[in-house]
């Protein structure tokens, strides 16, 4: 059975092998490699097999311990060629022995890469990238990319789809991770094969619904970013484009949390002062990510990223609050609670100058949250006053802030239905009175005057309507049923 399986692998002529040896770039990048065609046309397309798999003349089923050190790299390439055959896992009973052989070979490759092998040659790098490309790069089923979002947030609770070929994919991912991080791989030699197209397709795989696959991709992409400095701008650009498309076009992507997690670690390495490119990413990508309905899936990672930016560049705090106010969820209570939590984190680190730029619109919004009939929103807004840093900011600007907030507290004390919100309201009211009793007294007086004006306006409007109703009732029945021609 093993020989029958190995006979499926293509064989090249010695002349073709010599050509591949002279030009190791041959054989990379053709989609026909998955089928491993042995036709002469496929050979001319350089997509049949890896260069040294035949040159080595080594049986790929041999163990690494059974060959000399000088032959191990050739055996490594031969085994990579063996793993380029992709099986159909939709039928578990099909090609069982061949699947197990490939799995055992992948395990050998993972162990070999983990044991500090000799420096990888260009044919070995080419073969490794080719094997990973053939096994990993694939098109997901349509339901993974085009699922309707009309059901709103309920779709976030759907069970993820797991790839039936995971037993092989997991080992290929493990191989790629160890290969990229290996000290035997020189970035200067590998950048030709771990190129922009390879990285773009790695990022595209983050659309996978399998969380195990996304975790592997996250680790690999992070390592590639760390090792290949030349590719860093391209990776950042690709991530930005994913965010733009997610926010402004589809609002459906499974890998936003993973991409934000990667970028969170990238931000820590930004030099100061921040480049304009990084600020533009903050304004145009990170802040608009607060807009989609599925914010809860990646909110923790997003909050970490924006806080990293604010720590690096404190002047961005006011821009962040302005962005939150722009995308504030008026009708989504759960998102509103998350926004209030993020506001608290920002206010803990904001400078006084930046705070004063946004305090009026911010506390106007907080005032509406305090009066919210959703008790969780009202509670979260009132909990802000338990933060010593926020209380200090309010105390320094109380002449502006207290007149904005106090009417909302009075309205809650008189009308709110939830007892917990009532208790918190009274506690905050007492705290503000202790802060500046004279100012609070003035606020109470102004609030009473406003209430009287509102009551007077309501009474006048009521009298006008009564007058109109009385006038209408005095008209004869025939007049009420007669059409009237109105001329301009």
List keywords for this structure.
single chain; 488 residues; mainly alpha; 0% strand; elongated
Query: So what's the oligomer here?
Result: single chain
What spatial form do the alpha-carbon principal axes imply?
elongated
Q: How many H/I helices?
A: 25
Q: For the residues shown, what is the average pLDDT?
A: 82
User: What share of the residues does DSSP label as strand, in percent?
Assistant: under 5%
Main β-sheet, in a few words?
none
The gyration radius over C-alpha positions equals 33 Å
Strands, total number: 0
Protein model, in words:
- With 488 residues, the chain is mainly α.
- Helices cover 66% and strands 0% of the residues.
- It has 25 helices and no strands.
- It has helices at residues 2-7, 14-22, 40-44, 52-55, 69-82, 96-114, 122-136, 142-145, 166-181, 187-190, 196-204, 211-227, 232-250, 256-267, 276-286, 295-312, 316-326, 333-347, 352-370, 375-383, 388-396, 398-415, 419-435, 437-474, 477-480.
- The radius of gyration is 33 Å and the shape is elongated.
Task: Detail the topology: elements first, then pairings.
Elements: H1 2-7, H2 14-22, H3 40-44, H4 52-55, H5 69-82, H6 96-114, H7 122-136, H8 142-145, H9 166-181, H10 187-190, H11 196-204, H12 211-227, H13 232-250, H14 256-267, H15 276-286, H16 295-312, H17 316-326, H18 333-347, H19 352-370, H20 375-383, H21 388-396, H22 398-415, H23 419-435, H24 437-474, H25 477-480
């Amino acid at each position: 059975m093993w020989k029958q399986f190995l006979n499926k692998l293509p064989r090249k002529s010695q002349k073709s092998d010599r050509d591949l040896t002279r030009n190791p770039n041959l054989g990379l990048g053709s989609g026909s490699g998955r089928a491993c065609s042995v036709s002469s046309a496929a050979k001319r397309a350089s997509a049949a097999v890896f260069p040294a798999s035949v040159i080595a003349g080594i049986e790929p089923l041999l163990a690494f311990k059974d060959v000399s050190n000088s032959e191990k790299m050739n055996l490594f390439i031969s085994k990579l060629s063996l793993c380029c055959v992709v099986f159909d896992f939709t039928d578990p009973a099909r090609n069982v022995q061949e699947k197990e052989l490939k799995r055992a070979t992948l395990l050998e490759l993972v162990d070999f890469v983990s044991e500090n092998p000799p420096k990888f040659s260009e044919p070995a790098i080419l073969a490794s990238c080719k094997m990973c490309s053939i096994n990993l790069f694939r098109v997901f089923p349509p339901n993974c990319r085009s699922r309707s979002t009309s059901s709103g947030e309920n779709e976030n609770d759907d069970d993820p789809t797991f790839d039936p070929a995971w037993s092989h994919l997991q080992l290929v991912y493990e191989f790629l991770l160890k290969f990229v991080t290996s000290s035997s791989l020189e970035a200067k030699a590998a950048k030709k094969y771990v190129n922009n197209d390879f990285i773009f397709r790695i990022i595209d795989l983050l659309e996978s619904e399998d969380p195990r696959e996304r975790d592997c991709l996250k680790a690999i992409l992070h390592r590639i970013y760390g090792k290949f400095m030349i590719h860093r701008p391209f990776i950042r650009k690709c991530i930005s484009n994913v965010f733009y498309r997610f926010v402004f076009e589809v609002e459906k992507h499974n890998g936003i949390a993973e991409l934000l997690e990667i970028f969170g670690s990238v931000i820590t390495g930004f030099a100061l002062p921040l480049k304009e490119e990084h600020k533009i990413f903050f304004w145009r990508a990170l802040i608009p990510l607060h807009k989609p309905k599925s914010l809860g899936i990646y909110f923790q990672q997003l909050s970490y990223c924006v806080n990293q930016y604010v720590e690096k560049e404190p002047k961005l705090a006011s821009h962040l609050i302005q962005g939150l106010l722009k995308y504030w969820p008026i009708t989504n209570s759960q998102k509103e609670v998350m926004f209030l939590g993020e506001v608290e984190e920002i206010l803990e680190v904001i400078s006084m100058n930046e705070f004063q730029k946004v305090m009026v619109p911010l506390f106007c919004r907080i005032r509406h949250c305090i009066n919210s009939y959703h008790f969780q929103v009202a509670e979260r807004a009132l909990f802000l006053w338990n933060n010593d840093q926020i209380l200090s900011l309010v105390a320094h600007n109380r002449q502006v802030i207290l007149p904005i907030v106090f009417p909302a507290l009075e309205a809650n004390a008189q009308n709110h239905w939830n007892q917990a919100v009532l208790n918190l309201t009274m506690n905050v009211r007492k705290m503000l009175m202790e802060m500046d009793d004279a100012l609070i007294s003035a606020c109470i007086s102004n609030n009473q005057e406003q209430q009287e004006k509102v009551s007077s306006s309501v009474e006048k409007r009521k009298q006008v309507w009564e007058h109109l109703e009385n006038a209408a009732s005095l008209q004869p029945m025939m007049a009420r049923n007669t059409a009237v021609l109105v001329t301009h």
